[in-house]
Design goal:
Number of strands: 14
Mean pLDDT: 86
Low-confidence stretches: none
Order of helices and strands: EEHEEEEEEEEHHEEHEHEH
Shape: globular
Helix content: 10-25%
Radius of gyration: 23 Å
Number of domains: 2
InterPro entries: P-loop_NTPase
Organism: Adineta steineri
Structural class: alpha+beta
Protein name: UvrD-like helicase C-terminal domain-containing protein
Strand content: 25-35%
Number of helices: 6
Length: 260
């Protein structure tokens, strides 16, 4: 796009029973994956026009729920503080601008029921910074256990800290997981049926394959093991299907006039 990226940096406040003096603690917390931080990213790269995914139920009745997709348009932040550029983070380029005082992001969400807000273009929704708390075990955060052991000599003190994070509940959505795609109908998709290690479930292949209305709108990225399509439902799933079948027959008997 020929534009320097902007990265929104989360604000973390550490709560612990004693003063924590560990090297690069702030940096390590920001680098954590969002599945360990209540889905609030430490670093959020943004460029106008990029797809994003909402990570929080803001107003489900208005179509603003966890998993809702949109297009990022503009970042609103406190201009009294200047942007900083450059970082020792290898993942970012030297011209990256960092924002530490974001207020909200303007996101275009066509599926939202809020179509026209005052002074904003149609379907533009302000997504505010939110606050959440998560816990992190420092022994898992640092490979050098000796550093942690020295700090927590008192066995009564646990090497777990509580972190209160303020951040935008958004993530880039050039690609999304199968889990996040549930319940959505998408225009065109490319899916990968090479499954990660671990137990396969029926939904692992069924969900991505059923996100489009016709097969011509679906492309499978690469060859995959046929076992991905041969997963059998669990006993619990079979029991639930049987329960729903019984309910259907009971409903059909009670309201037969609607099944003619």
């Amino acid at each position: 796009m020929g534009r320097a990226p902007t990265v929104v940096i989360a604000t973390d406040t550490i709560k612990a029973k004693k003063h924590i003096d560990l090297p690069d603690l702030t940096k390590r917390l920001l680098a954590l994956p969002d599945n360990k931080t209540e889905h609030l990213p430490g670093y959020l790269p943004l460029v106008p026009g990029m797809p994003v995914l909402l990570q929080e139920n803001i107003a489900c009745e208005l179509g603003l729920s966890n998993g809702t997709q949109g297009i990022f348009r503009e970042l609103i932040y406190d201009h009294s503080s200047e942007l900083t550029t450059g970082s020792d983070e290898e993942r970012f380029t030297a011209d990256t601008a960092f924002v530490r005082n974001a207020q909200y992001a303007l996101v275009e969400i066509p599926k939202s029921k809020l179509k026209n807000l005052d002074s904003l273009d149609p379907f533009i929704i302000p997504i505010p910074v939110i606050e959440k708390t998560f816990e992190i075990n420092l022994e898992k955060l640092y490979a050098d256990k000796g550093v942690i052991m020295k700090m927590f000599k008192d066995k009564k003190l646990k090497a777990t800290i509580s972190v209160k994070r303020k951040a935008l509940p958004l993530i880039p959505a050039y690609s999304i997981t199968t889990h996040k795609s549930q319940g959505q109908t998408l225009p065109k998709i490319v899916i990968d049926l090479n499954m990660p290690p671990g137990m396969l479930e029926v939904a692992s292949a069924y969900v991505p394959l059923s996100r489009v209305e016709q097969l011509t709108d679906l492309v499978i990225l690469q060859d995959f093991n046929i076992s991905a399509l041969q997963v059998k439902p669990s006993k619990g799933q079979i029991a639930e299907l049987n329960r729903l079948a019984v309910l259907f027959q009971q409903t059909k008997q009670r309201y037969g006039q609607y099944f003619l």
